[in-house]
Design a protein that fits this description.
Largest sheet: 14 strands, antiparallel
Shape: globular
Oligomer: single chain
Helix content: 10-25%
Distance between the termini: 52 Å
């Protein structure tokens, strides 16, 4: 078994991609009914510069902040194919593998299929195709259908790499989520980062990077990370008051988030109820909206 197959078995969760989303027309209506175009995909291709928070874009950025924290909560602790299998699998180096291999026994120990493709020269895994691949156990039993693609900086065992998971993941509670996660490391697993692309509460395509989430034991969450708005650019999000997501439609019901942008601009979004939230900017403007 090649060292690259060991990488596929051991690497952490991944996914990601690209898509299209036009600038929404903000109607300034207290009901969140902005017109949005081209949101047929949860893949992100948008503005990657730092946003300047202002009165005209604060609502968009605030909804993006809330959406990113919800995404972080939903993906918190999720294991993608190849992560849990590594704990019980010890590959033995052999000759450089070529072509394709049915690795279902190792990657999908509870059923389904996992087919990997190798680079015929280096033996590195370049593609994994999963169908109803079941792995993990207990509360962490998952089923994944989709693909993982891996690209490398060179042919060495410790090469820098980027892996992308793209597919549908079903957890033990029978909730299925679309996964688009990208995981990248420099050589020898150094300075690893990840990002996830998703559709926000407003059905626009966002990207969240390296988000961290903690839960206080009472279903209230503290999170921080960076979220990319497709039109306005990125903001950094932190938690002022832990956020709950117990509303029937998945919206946050309590808590407050802060977000910061370029030129010392910032804002907050406070969740008043399951239907109402308040957006405030550092210029002093404050507006109430309904989902």
């Amino acid at each position: 078994m090649s060292a690259s197959f060991s990488l596929l078995l051991a690497m952490q969760g991944c996914g990601g991609g690209g898509g299209s989303s036009d600038d929404p027309t903000d109607t300034n209506n207290p009901v969140n009914d902005d017109n949005v175009s081209d949101n047929t995909s949860d893949d992100f291709t948008g503005n990657e510069s730092e946003a300047v928070v202002n009165d005209s874009n604060a609502k968009d950025l605030a909804v993006g902040a809330a959406s990113a924290v919800k995404q972080g909560v939903d993906e918190n602790g999720i294991v993608l194919p190849a992560q849990t299998a590594a704990k019980a699998y010890n590959p033995t180096p052999i000759v450089v593998p070529m072509g394709t291999s049915d690795s279902s026994e190792d990657l999908c120990p509870h059923g389904g299929t996992g087919i990997v493709e190798f680079n015929d020269t280096t033996g590195q895994v370049t593609l994994g195709t999963f169908t109803d691949c079941s792995y993990g156990g207990g509360l962490y039993l998952y089923t994944f259908t989709g693909v993982v693609t891996i690209t490398y900086a060179d042919g060495s065992d410790g090469s820098a790499f980027t892996s992308v998971h793209d597919g549908d993941l079903t957890s033990v509670d029978n909730i299925t989520r679309a996964i688009h996660r990208t995981f990248s490391c420099e050589a020898n697993y150094q300075n690893c980062t990840f990002f996830s692309d998703f559709l926000g509460f407003d059905d626009r395509s966002y990207r969240v990077t390296d988000i961290s989430v903690t839960e206080d034991g009472n279903s209230a969450y503290t999170a921080e990370g960076r979220v990319y708005d497709p039109s306005h650019g990125y903001i950094d999000v932190t938690t002022d008051i832990p956020v709950t997501f117990e509303c029937p439609d998945g919206h946050p019901g309590t808590g407050r988030l802060s977000f910061t942008g370029a030129n010392q601009t910032s804002g907050t979004i406070e969740f008043v109820s399951c239907t109402e939230y308040v957006v405030t900017t550092n210029s002093g403007t404050s507006n109430s909206y309904n989902w």
